[in-house]
Amino acid sequence: MILRGGDIELELTPRGGCVAALTWRGIDVLRRGAADAEALQQGAFPMAPFSGRIGSGRFVFAGRQIELPKNFPPEPHAIHGFSWTATWSSAAISERSQRLTHDYDGADWPWPYRAEQVFSLIEDGLELSLSLQNSSADEMPAGFGWHPYFPSDGAEIEADVREIWPSGDSMIPAEPELLSAP
């Protein structure tokens, strides 16, 4: 599905709930993917019900031992949740706005949930909302995020960052590290 508005064109794909392309005045803002490619080959994808890595796919929540599948072999951890490998449902909100939803049944993550993304082209850009709703009666630990890939030729990002969570060989961050002011 393709949305166009002003100088912006956005191509979405239900496979992984991904952005296959985002251009401004014909310039790629995100890496260009293909509509039938997996999430890791796209411009961006959602991560839910967790982002990053869960060490060895195991954690304890509310006194309960949780074991998740290691979903990105040969990596030894569970990574980026389940939404990026799922097929999302799509519904047009308007000719400049699209909703993608992913309903998860609780098979490998023991809590069913609904993830939703709303993409809206606005006068001077793209507005994106990402939400996660617990569909179970029990409390659910959760986190979510959006994983963009920027073109490698000259992309620059500016952000007000005061600390980072570096990871070592295990790819699991240990503790935050304060950054010195420039």
What's the SSE pattern?
EEEEEEEEEEEEEEEE
Global mean pLDDT: 92
Strand order of the largest sheet: 1-2-3-4
Task: State the distance separating the first and last CA atoms.
Answer: 43 Å
What share of residues is helical? under 10%
Using only CA atoms, what is the Rg? 18 Å
Please state the oligomeric state of the protein chains shown: single chain
Shape: globular
Strand elements, count: 16
Contiguous runs where pLDDT drops below 50 for at least 5 residues: none
The main β sheet shows up as:
4 strands, antiparallel
Helix-strand category: mainly beta
Discrete helix count: 0
What fraction of the residues are assigned to beta strands by DSSP?
Answer: 35-45%
Ordered list of secondary-structure elements with their pairings:
Elements: E1 2-5, E2 8-13, E3 18-24, E4 27-28, E5 44-47, E6 53-54, E7 58-61, E8 64-67, E9 78-79, E10 89-94, E11 97-104, E12 113-122, E13 125-134, E14 145-148, E15 163-164, E16 177-178
Antiparallel strand pairs: 1-2, 2-3, 3-4, 5-14, 6-9, 7-8, 10-11, 11-12, 12-13, 15-16
